[in-house]
Structure formats: structure tokens, C-alpha cells
Design goal:
Elements: E1 4-6, H1 15-23, E2 32-33, E3 55-57, E4 69-71, H2 87-105, E5 107-110, H3 113-123, E6 129-132, E7 155-158, H4 167-175, E8 182-185, H5 191-200, E9 207-210, H6 215-224, E10 227-230, H7 239-246, E11 251-254, H8 258-264, E12 268-271, H9 277-289, H10 303-316
Parallel strand pairs: 1-2, 1-3, 3-4, 5-6, 7-8, 7-10, 8-9, 10-11, 11-12
Length: 318
């Protein structure tokens, strides 16, 4: 087998960073770090020289045009639907870097059946194998987790404020439901923006920003919530939806977001119109007035199984 080198710069607590943190220690394939520094999402990073001629594996979508073969992970193609003019840079990057690397390697990884179908359509190349390696869920997210304490019922949002997350609509809905309370776990850089958004709607005393939560503490927040809000219009998977239902807490989501609908699989309320604050308000009222528990999925979300699928895909490239 070729020497396998991994871009280890995807490291953190959410999204692709979380995926990388969970997957890399579980791989059985012997690998070494590429040892690169700098921002892996910088425009010129794709052009840099690499210290190896062997197979490069990335837990994310950052492509190296000089790599002989690189196994990428396309969690989604949300960037290709970004608003103009920002979309232009992503269209260029995916056309000039990502697609050629994927076609040269002949295989690419993704994380859900929804994303698999999207990636296959985008590639338009039957010679490329798109592998749904799936995704896992920490053992901390379970139905018997101790619920977080709260004097009043609350809703939970875990994510960020990027446009496709559609957060303004649920804040508008919250303003229509007196006394409804929301806890939000956001990146530190977005906390001030969230405070401003809440204050502009008169919600300053009803929105609480969370920080510094490990998996156990986050599981308690999910378990104590009446529902988790997932208003996204686009997702590759929707890990907060999975974490929520694993604790038995239902999800309020837009029915048109295929990846979240796939994950939630009816365990919550599907809102018909993504941008209708009144419809979201009605779903919130129902969740608060008629709280319920949902049955977690019996199986199918296992980080060990995801790592095995990646190992098998790497082996197929030997």
C-alpha cells in the first residue's frame, strides 16, 4: 500500500473538525501527518507542494492539485449554493481543484445518502465511486442522560449563524411566542452577533448563549430541552439533529432539508415553509405545551463503523 499521509489541520469541536477528531484515532490504516501549517482553507493552499508522493487523505474537502492521489471527504456541497458574488470563488475552487482531484483518484467519501446523491449528480462521472462512510455519535448522547436544570422549559439550537442555517426565522418565531426561551451553542466569534439579533427582536432576556460544553454537558442540554431547533435550508448531514434524537429529544426542522429529514426520520415536527415565522411559532408552541420524548435510532451511527469504511476505501486504492 502507498504511504498514507493525513491532513490533520481539521481539528476542533464542531462540523468537519468534530468528524476529524472522532475518525482519525480510530483508523487502523497506518498513517502519518502531512505536517502542514497555515490555513487549510486559504485560497493558495490547494497549490502548495506536498512532502509525499503517496496517498493523501483529508477528512474535509480541501484539495491539493499537486497530490498524485487524494481521498477527499465531501460532507456536502452547500458552498456551491452560497449567495452571489461569494459563490463565484467556490464554483472556481470546486471546478479547478476539487473535481480534478476526485476524478484522478476515482473515489470520494461522503457522510449520508442525501449527500451521496448530490455529489454523484455534481460529478456526473460514473467512473468515480462515491462512498457513504456514514457518521457516528458520541456515547454521551443517550436517552438516560441527566437533563440540564432549568426553571422554565427551553428550546435548544446548536450550530452557527451562516445564511443556510436560517436562524433569523426561529428568532422571529420566538418573538411570537411569549415566554418561550432559547439556549444557543455557537462559535465564540458569533456570540456578539447573536446577542444583537436577539436584542433587535426584544429577546435579550429569553435567549441564553452557552459556551465551553463537553459532550456530557451538551448531552444534558439536549436532554433537558423541549425540542432542538434545526431550521437549516441545506445540510450534508445535520449532526445536532442526530445528537438530539439520541437523547430522546424531538427536532423541529424544515421538511425540505433532505439531510436533516433523513436523520430525524419523523422524530419531531417537520415545518412546511422554511421562512414562515408563524409556522415555526406554531411548532414551538406545540413543543412547549405538549412535550414528548422520541425513540432513538436503534443502530446505524457508529464512529468505529465510519472509520472501518474509510479504512476499506483507502485499502481499495492500494
Amino acid at each position: 500500500m502507498d504511504q498514507v499521509a493525513v491532513d490533520t489541520r481539521w481539528d476542533g469541536v464542531a462540523g468537519i473538525q468534530r468528524y476529524s477528531r472522532e475518525v482519525l484515532p480510530r483508523l487502523r490504516t497506518p498513517w502519518t501527518s502531512l505536517g502542514l501549517d497555515g490555513d487549510h482553507l486559504a485560497p493558495l493552499d490547494a497549490l502548495r507542494a506536498l512532502p509525499t508522493r503517496g496517498l493523501v487523505y483529508s477528512p474535509g474537502y480541501n484539495a491539493f492539485v499537486r497530490a498524485r492521489r487524494q481521498l477527499l471527504t465531501l460532507h456536502d456541497l452547500i458552498q456551491l449554493q452560497a449567495p452571489w458574488p461569494g459563490r463565484a470563488k467556490y464554483l472556481a475552487y470546486y471546478a479547478l481543484a476539487v473535481r480534478p482531484v476526485v476524478r484522478r483518484t476515482g473515489v470520494v467519501l461522503t457522510v449520508s445518502q442525501t449527500s451521496k446523491a448530490i455529489v454523484e449528480e455534481w460529478l456526473g462521472d460514473d467512473a468515480v465511486r462515491v462512498v457513504n462512510a456514514g457518521i457516528g455519535c458520541s456515547d454521551a448522547f443517550r436517552a438516560d442522560a441527566e437533563p440540564a436544570s432549568s426553571a422554565d422549559p427551553y428550546l435548544l439550537y446548536v450550530g452557527n449563524l451562516r445564511a443556510h442555517k436560517n436562524v433569523p426565522v426561529v428568532l422571529d418565531a420566538l418573538a411570537l411566542v411569549p415566554d418561550a426561551r432559547l439556549r444557543m451553542l455557537l462559535p465564540a466569534r458569533e456570540r456578539d452577533e447573536a446577542r444583537g439579533m436577539a436584542a433587535a427582536r426584544g429577546l435579550g432576556d429569553r435567549v441564553e448563549l452557552l459556551a465551553g460544553l463537553d459532550d456530557d454537558a451538551l448531552a444534558r442540554q439536549y436532554r433537558g430541552a423541549s425540542a432542538t431547533l434545526m431550521p437549516s435550508m441545506l445540510e450534508g448531514f445535520g449532526l445536532p439533529a442526530l445528537e438530539s434524537i439520541m437523547t430522546g429529544t424531538p427536532v423541529l426542522y424544515w421538511r425540505g432539508c433532505a439531510a436533516v429529514a433523513e436523520t430525524a426520520d419523523g422524530r419531531g415536527t417537520a415545518v412546511a415553509d422554511a421562512r414562515d415565522a408563524d409556522a415555526w411559532a406554531e411548532a414551538i408552541r406545540s413543543a412547549l405545551s405538549r412535550p414528548r420524548r422520541v425513540e432513538p435510532p436503534a443502530a446505524g451511527y457508529d464512529w468505529d463503523a465510519t472509520a472501518r469504511s474509510i479504512d476499506e476505501t483507502i485499502a481499495s486504492l492500494a
